Structure formats: structure tokens, C-alpha cells
Give the backbone structure.
Amino acid sequence: MSARAQELLKDYQLRLTDCRIDVLDFLLVNQRAVSQPELEQQLSDRFDRVTLYRTLNTFNEKGLIHEVTDTSGTMKFALCGEACHGSDHHHHEHVHFHCTQCNQTVCINEVDVPHLSLPTGFKPQKFSFIIEGICQSCQQ
Amino acid sequence: MSARAQELLKDYQLRLTDCRIDVLDFLLVNQRAVSQPELEQQLSDRFDRVTLYRTLNTFNEKGLIHEVTDTSGTMKFALCGEACHGSDHHHHEHVHFHCTQCNQTVCINEVDVPHLSLPTGFKPQKFSFIIEGICQSCQQ
DNA sequence: GTTATTTTTGCAACTCCGTTGCAATCATGC
DNA sequence: GCATGATTGCAACGGAGTTGCAAAAATAAC
């Protein structure tokens, strides 16, 4: 578990620190987007929120994780899965499902982001498809 | 201009106040999503930010405007156009374009939100398709 | 293994935005 | 024009993003 995290950190030329390993472990175990506040709770306040903020920032800059937008108000990040490195270039065109009840955001790998063409003049750089609703776990 | 705003407020059974009229005017003139901070600037600090916050909230609850999510971090709202009231029910499935340079978010009416089916267990309630990039005005 | 160097961390501090309570002000119906 | 209820502005608080700086830790060099 932790081994995979350490491996990943080395691959991305990042120093092995407790915080980074724990955050990465958490992301590896829970395959979903997490926010800095959630990490703070989940990691039992073992790290300062600024450290977690910077850890996520570093991972994001290095391309280990990517931003996930939803309507929860706080920025979330998710691990880049295999899909991110597929074929020729790095891309993040996933469909994300945000549960308005448990506030969790997951990547829907089963569904491809539909392609669409914009009116002339717009230069698209990133596509986000967010679906809000109730997730599988929250249906009683 | 202001006449249309007053008309709309009456339609939605809202009291005619300076703030509401000005905000609505601004939304009518600039057909795009705006945030509370932007309104504060644009309306020359004539209203308290809390008032603007509550004005947007009220409009949203009454269905005059709807939330627009992008990665700017602050919540934005846009007028509900004719498309919102089309055919049988109220819906907000627009494609939104967020310019990362000028930070403006516009509704792309020309393009329909593609329909897609989710894995079983997910109950979708709202679809957001956000495209980040450079808008028409920002291309030099 | 010890030391030097560079990075990372924790703390303090600040800003911005969302949100609520409350008293004063305003819009509307009579 | 007055009464009533809604709306506003102010004060205030919390959460999240962000930066600077000194202490601590991780790697590199010996």
C-alpha cells in the first residue's frame, strides 16, 4: 500500500515525507476526488492544513493528481488514473458524479465525455462534465 | 431597460427595490453568469455585499436565475433564458464556457448538452458541462 | 555515520467569500 | 399617510486559499 505511494513519489521526483505518503495512500485507497478539508479530517489532524494544501498543490503541478470541480465550493483533487496517460497525451476529460447528499465526487469511467464543437472563437482547454445527484451508496 | 427588470420582479412577486432592479438590469444587459463580488464592483459599491448575496439568493430561490459552476472558486449566477422554460419543465442543462483569462462565464446556447446514461444506482438531478479555455474576446 | 544543503513543514497571519442576527429602513396594501 | 412586513446595512463569524518565515526533516556529499 504505502509501497505504491513511495514508488509514485519517486517516479515524480518528489521527496518522501510522511504527509505525502499518507495523502497518496488515501488517494490510492479511496478512488475519488478529495478536498484539503477532508484530508485534514481523515488524516486525524496529523498534518497542518497548509501542509495538506501545499501537498495537493505540488501533486497537481507535477501532474500526479488533477483538479475536480463540483458545486461543493471547495476544490477537490483526484489521482490521475491510467486513462490520463492513454494514447498520446495527458487529458482529464472524465465525467464526474457529485453526490449532493454525502458530498463525494467520483469519476465515472464507464462513460466517455461526449465530444462537441464550439462556436468559432472559443479555444477550449479543458472539459468538465459534472453530474449532480444521489450516488449508489446514498440510495436507501 | 429598467422597465423590463421591474416587470420581471413583479412577475416573480418580488418587491421593487433599488438593489434588485440594478442587479436584474445588469444581468439583462450582460448576458452571462456573474458573481456577488463582481456585482459589488460593477454596481460601484452602492450596495452592501450581504445585500447582493441575499438578492442573488432570493432570485435563485424564486427561479429567476440559476447557479453556474466553474473553476473560478466563487459561485456565479445567470438569468434563466427562454430555454429554461421550454417545452414541459424547468431545466438548466446548458453548456457553459469559462474563460480562464477574463474569468467570464457565458452560456453556449448553440450547443446542446449531450445526453448520456449513467451506471445503475446513480440518480442524476443536474448536469453541468463546463468548458474552460480562452473566449472570443480574449484572443488577440 | 556525520555533516552540509536543499526542501518541506508548522505556525502566524491575512484576504476573500459565504452566512447569520439584529436593528433600522423601505415597499406595499389599506 | 400609516401600519405591517420585507429588505437592507452593519457587525461578526467560520471556512478555505494563500504567503512569509523559522524550525525540522530529507537527500546529497563526504
User: Anything to note?
Assistant: Residues 15-17, 35-37, 49-50, 53-54, 73-75 of chain B lie near DNA strand C (CB under 10 Å from a C1'). DSSP finds four helices and six strands in chain B. The beta strands of chain B are 34-35, 65-68, 76-79, 95-99, 105-108, 123-134. Residues 61 and 112 of chain B are 25 Å apart (CA to CA).
